[in-house]
Amino acid sequence: SVVDRGGVFCGRRRLDGYVAGCKAAVCWRCMNKAPKDTLGQVRTTKTEFDSLGAAAWWMHGRCMNSADKAEYYGEDPEDGGAGNSG
After folding, report:
1. CA 14 – CA 67 distance, rounded (Å)
2. Do 69 and 52 touch, CB atoms closer than 8 A?
3. pLDDT by residue (tens digit) across 7-54?
4. Rounded Cα distance, 86 and 31, in Å
5. b vs e for 27-61, b when ≥16 Cβ sit within 10 Å of the residue's Cβ?
6. N or C: which end of the chain has fewer CB within 10 A?
7. What is the pLDDT of residue 39?
């Protein structure tokens, strides 16, 4: 699994089958330590990524479209963007 390999790749397969993202590899240390101007603000941890199982994905914020961002943050686009957190 990706977790066992030391990091993640920027990308996901969308429902239409298109593979989005720049496919850059990011190690867990870089995910944790890289400055925002290098990696961006969208981050995950090894624990969080692993907890999401086979459906887990991560992308740079700059590689996401609005639907990717809504799904990543658990927002319902029809609900005006209110997340799952409360």
Report:
1. 10
2. no
3. 999 999 998 999 999 999 999 999 999 999 989 999 999 999 999 998
4. 26
5. ebeebeeeeeeebbebebebeebeeeeeebbbbbe
6. C
7. 92
Dihedral in degrees, nearest 10, Cα atoms 60, 41, 56, 32 = 110
User: Is 4 in a helix, a strand, or coil?
Assistant: helix
Q: Which two tokens stand for residue 65?
A: 């479209």
- pLDDT above 60: residue 70: yes
Q: What's the Rg (C-alpha) of the chain? A: 13
HEC readout, 24-57: CEEEHHHHHHCCHHHHCCCCCCHHHHHHCHHHCC
Using DSSP's 3-state secondary structure scheme, residue 65 falls into coil
